[in-house]
Amino acid sequence: MIAHDKAFRRFLIIWSGQLLSAIGSGLTAFALGVFVFQQTQSTTSYSFIILCSFLPSFLLLPFSGVLADRFDRKKMMIIGDIGSIAGILFILLVTLSGRMELWHIYLGVGISSLSAAILNPAFKAAVSDLVSEEMYSQASGLIQLASSAQYLISPLVAGFLLSAFDIQLVLLIDMMTFLLAVGAVLMIMKHDATPQKQERQSFFREMSEAFRYLLSKKGVFSLVLLMSVVCFYIGLLQSLFGPMMLTLTDSKTLGIALSASASGMLVSSLLIGLFGMGKSKVIMLSFSLVLAGLFYALMGVFTSVWLIMVFGFLFFITLPFVNTSLEVLIRTNVENERQGRVWSMITAISQIGFVLAFGSAGFLADHVFNPLFDPDRLLGQTVGHIIGTGAGRGIGFLFIVSGILVAILGMMIGRARKIHELEQQALEVIRT
């Protein structure tokens, strides 16, 4: 027991460093987005930062888990943290030089994203090295808390910092948090041995087998495609919420709105943890998506910052119910020995929705929807009387359309025979 307590304390040290670095990363992500939008008034430029922060990690996703199993995980974490520092330092230096261009920011963000792709799977895998099986649940909950901090805490703090200081201070704080994370890893490295390297198998063969397995499970594959569609609409919201709000208010209020909205996920996650969910995960999934679509659409209808914040909070409340329902339905219909490979493939396919959203959101906003809501255009003279005209109202209309489509998707799922069959199969497995 004493040894287990010491091991968990070492985990808490390394987790504290990752918590701080997650908050620092959230500060920089918020600050760079606001900075670029205020400089360019371009939604495309804003959303391209999000794409650069996501795409490198996405492309490395199939490989990073393999690396975490084959190499020293703590050294990988240090390399990842140092790489993130390098990316932020590059952006800081070009901003101080006064010769900054957008591609400088995109490059720096991309370097940090590559580094995160090395760090994150190594950190999650290192839990098995640091804590006993009895403490896995506590460790997993703390990891989820650390990853959520950049959405719950960072926007609020960054909004206040940007209202009083330059972006350089935010970048410096982010670099300091990564240095603290490196220090935390160095503190515990001498206490824990490197895990033994496992037998190497053909990576591409395993991935192709996982993909063929998914195709053979038509109900599961349908859910994976659903996850990709949901990720697309969430990606649109993630890309365009900031630009829409910045046409209505300042960066400090935007930070408050983002943190308050994201706290909805924390509330519903606690409710699920305390009370669980109903027996029918399909009905819960369908109902949650319909509500998510409704609140998504209502965020686009109004120009009141407080109403947008309320509906944003309600939208994020629904997401843990959607995610949990999807995960349970899939997990109970995939054999245990295939879980690792299959979940890696599921994550890769579902996150294609994010890539498509981050890549298209700026174009849709700047060149399709916002121009339609000029006061002298047709939609500006019709729908514009209801939701308003001018900057950002095209994004609001895109939110309305997206929300309606999400709600329709939720209703279709409730009537899908193949998805209901998944729940029946899961119940039969439990009975046997």
Structure description:
The chain is built from 18 helices and no strands. With 432 residues, it is an all-alpha fold. α1 packs antiparallel against α2, α1 crosses α6 (154-164) and α11 (281-301) packs antiparallel against α12 (305-331).
Instruction: Identify the overall geometry.
Output: globular
If you average the pLDDT, what whole number results? 82
Number of helices: 18
Report the C-alpha radius of gyration, rounded.
22 Å
Strand percentage lies at: under 5%
Features:
432 residues; mainly alpha; 18 helices; 0% strand; globular
Fold blueprint:
Elements: H1 2-40, H2 43-70, H3 73-97, H4 102-130, H5 136-152, H6 154-164, H7 167-189, H8 203-216, H9 218-246, H10 251-275, H11 281-301, H12 305-331, H13 339-350, H14 352-372, H15 378-381, H16 384-387, H17 393-414, H18 417-431
